[in-house]
Amino acid sequence: MSIISNLKKDIKEYIKNAGYEVENLAIETSNRKDLGEYQLNDAMQLAKKYKENPRQIAEKIASELKKDERFTNINIAGPGFINISLSNEYINEILNDMNKDLFSNIDKREKRKVIIDYGGANVAKALHVGHLRSANIGEALKRLARLFGYEVLGDAHLGDYGRPLGFVVLEISKEYPDLPYFDPNYKGDYHELSLPITNEELEKLYPLASSKAKEDESYLEEGRIITAKIQNHERGYYDLWKKIVEISKADIKNVYDILNTEFDLWLGESDAVEYFDELQEIFEKKNLLQKSEGAVIIDVSRNDDNSPMPPLLFVKSNKTISYETTDLATILQRKKEYNPDEIWYVVDGRQSLRFEQIFRAVRLSNLVREDVILEHVNFGTMNGKDGKPFKTRDGGVMTLKKLIDIVKEETLKRISNESIKEEEKEDISLSVAIAALKYADLLPYRATDYVFELEKFADLDGKTGSYLLYSTIRMKSLLNKAKDINYEKANNIMGQSEKNIVLTLLELNNILNNSLDSKSLNEIAEYLYVLTSQYNKFYSENRILTEENKEKQESWLVLTKVVYRVNMLLLDILGIKVPEKM
Ligand code: ARG
Question: Quick one: 256 exposed, middle or buried, by C-beta within 10 A (0-12, 13-18, 19+)?
Fold first, then answer.
């Protein structure tokens, strides 16, 4: 159990010894540390419950707490607030404990099997800013849940199905009509063919096709026919589609690599299609499918709906499967192949209505066990200064590659360390750019929108990824310089600014738990900044390497080491890599 959980358990015991029972302790960290590091507010609630004077209750509890040497400065304020501080000995003990084993200070949870769906990149279309947040948030949630002992599978869930692909193939057939894929007499093996089209060209084809389709009804019809051919696995068309997926996937993977985003599963919407017949049968048996204007729909409305809930479109009137249905089929696939306890969809908040429809359809049909949790972990958009989703200067979609380049250019300008060689600068500025971008993205609560501010994000001195990297690297270099000093134990942490750092370290378990509960990384991001700033303040006030009091020096080095390790742990959860230098 974590130190803080133990401490809370013991305090509850003291309250019991005083003659009272509390369920959840009302303990708060105080910002007037001189008055008391913690404030215990339980006497007020207990007064109501036991019909006694809160001040008297507080006194009885305080006299129990005084028996414990870990507490000092116990005093009662106002109507019955109990202020308590931790003794210096105990502070040092906590630090040593964390130094010995950081992980034993994190409460584990019961193991659950979770699939996190957080890719959503679309084949033959460039990854754009909209995909940034799902990658960042999803990857971090995956790492966080694993820390707590969950079994997690991250799935890229590629958009590799449906009309867009049909249009890309149509456009290729117009531009390269002589390709063997379109030759009904071709007898060779399509696997051995290479496609003379680069990913950059592929990415241009869909926007082109889609604008043509808007103006030209017959082009639109051709696109539909080709989409159907692909979906019916027609030789040539189907093979070309597979080839496109392969080329595009490799490129998508590259971008995710740069973002330190690693998926365990690279499945796509199309992989679920083989489950469609079974899915349809399940819904049919429950009489949930209705015909409507040539389409098949599912009524997912409820009597107590406050606003109208449109039906889920199961099969479109042109007989193709809707985006919602690929999600339903994917749930069936996941159940059969992985049997998860939970599925988390880290997807833009603008898709919340359709997830509500999908989840309702799952419950109506009992597609999965009742106790399987399905959650739309929604997020807000990254906006431009105009408050609208971030675009390029000419109003186009901002691709992720372009965005990363812009930030990298900015971080490159700020590399001033003279020991860094010209040829190292590229890699380092990229690492810093990713840190800046990710940190800024994870800092606000996930469901809120935020504004992209280049200079602010890249700043070395603000609440930024660059600041955290810089500070963490400095801690590491201090520890390297102290390699020859033998420091094992802290016993001299006494000043308030050092004690405050330990008190902050003590909060680690809560922060991690809160983040997992809210499925948002904002508390971790904020905590990293608080801890790092507190450490930097302490660092600037002391000369650790030349300190003559050996006990002090040893204690400070232990402190530095624990803060460094906590930073590395949390940065890793956020998916941020720390370069050797910057
Ligand atoms: N490909 C989709 C898009 O770009 C996102 C997929 C999200 N995941 C899901 N299971 N629907 O909008």
Answer: buried
pLDDT tens-digit series, residues 344-361:
999 999 999 999 999 999
Q: How far is the CA of 296 from the centre of ligand 1 (A)?
A: 22
User: Contacts from 203-208 at CB under 8 Å and sequence distance 24+?
Assistant: 203/124, 203/125, 203/126, 205/124, 205/167, 205/168, 205/171, 205/172, 206/124, 206/125, 206/164, 206/167, 206/168, 206/171, 208/171
Which residue has a Cα nearest atom 4 of ligand 1? 120
CA-330 nearest atom, ligand 1: 10
Residue type, 413: K
- Topology (CATH level 3) of domain 400-573: Isoleucyl-tRNA Synthetase; Domain 1 (1.10.730)
In tens, the pLDDT along 531-567 reads 999 999 999 999 999 999 999 999 999 999 999 999 9
Return the residue whose CA atom lies nearest to atom 5 of ligand 1: 120
Separation of alpha carbons 486 and 181, rounded Å: 70
Q: Whose Cα sits closest to atom 12 in ligand 1?
A: 120
Distance set, CA 230 to CA 164, 165, 271, 552 (Å)? 11, 9, 13, 71
The CATH superfamily holding the domain 3-86 is Arginyl tRNA synthetase N-terminal domain (3.30.1360.70)
Q: Where exactly are the structural domains of the chain?
A: 3-86, 114-159+266-383, 163-258, 400-573
Rounded-to-5 percentages of helix, strand, coil across the chain: 55, 10, 35
Structure tokens at 544: 């650790």
